[in-house]
Description:
By secondary structure, the protein is α/β, with parallel strands linked by helices. 29% of the residues lie in helices and 26% in strands.
Amino acid sequence: MPPSVLIVGGGIIGCATGYELAKGGCRVTVLERDTPGGEASGAAAGLLAPLGESRDPGAFQALAVESWRLYPEVVAELEAGTGMNVEYMTAGTLYPVLDAGELAVARERTTWAVAREFGVELLEGARVLEREPALAGSITAALFVHGDHWVNNERLVAAYAQAAAERGVVIRSGVEVSEILIDGGRTRGVMAGGRRLEADCVLLAAGAWSRELMTARGSGLPVGPVRVQILSVPNSPPLLTHAVHGRSVYLVPRPSGELLVGATVEHVGFVREVTDEALEHLIDEAVSLVPGIGERPLLRSWCGFRPWAPDSLPILGPWPGVDGLFVATAHYRNGILLAPITAHLLSACVITGRAPALLGPFLPDRFISSTP
Length: 372
């Protein structure tokens, strides 16, 4: 019989994995301290760009590409099941090339094994502005990745949460977990809101807050918050039809007529604040790529906390030495991109008790010298 599962954290990872576990027959409850998708999942632009986030064709790229491949089916399934439009866009991303070093890197990326699948193309000269006329005239080369997609991340989380609920997942908001219960080398459940909740398995997917619960158990989980700030300006009349990803800023047009500009990377702890300095930096960087953005008014700005590990890679899989305890956190800038593959692999891990090979480089034991 499939196990019962308590998921700590109702962001994109918790909701997506809850949905997959329910499809596998598990009885699932998601416990969210605030509102589903209210933290890292909301502090994103929804870019699905595996090659842009990959320094080389290694383990992370393999994980990201597998998740990207799942997205068309995931989107179709969620939209058919919930009736929600998650604004799945497939127009591709331009990566401006600003110096000789970047040009060499761009040329190398056109030779990667997955370059053909993603439609990677180096544009030079007039072809750059032909593809995206709003770019600064000083940009004379750009890598274009046809296969880069993006979604409305807020809508995607809502769709996953609704689909999970329709599969019988219980999603409880405003419930803070204070302790993971472990006895005899096995998890027994959690303490939440002063109550003991029992289950066969616990999946810790609490994002930047995951560390606190493992520290309380005397175990090290090196995950901390990275504050990100994002803003948006009108994209009507349209400035951009493709996403644009520069050195320190990305620009993502949405069907709603909004153009997202993000995001800062700030190691400031849990200081929840939108700062004038950060917004000025984002606007300056955006204008250097697309001058017309300087003529658009600010629509909104917000911040959130992404979970980050010292090697900038996700932490996924069973916690060593404790049966029934699993971790899915530290997705950093790639929680939206990696949600489908994380849900697929972690649900298989929970149901079968075995970690799929793809999880090997991301297992939590890479940080752990002793077990509780």
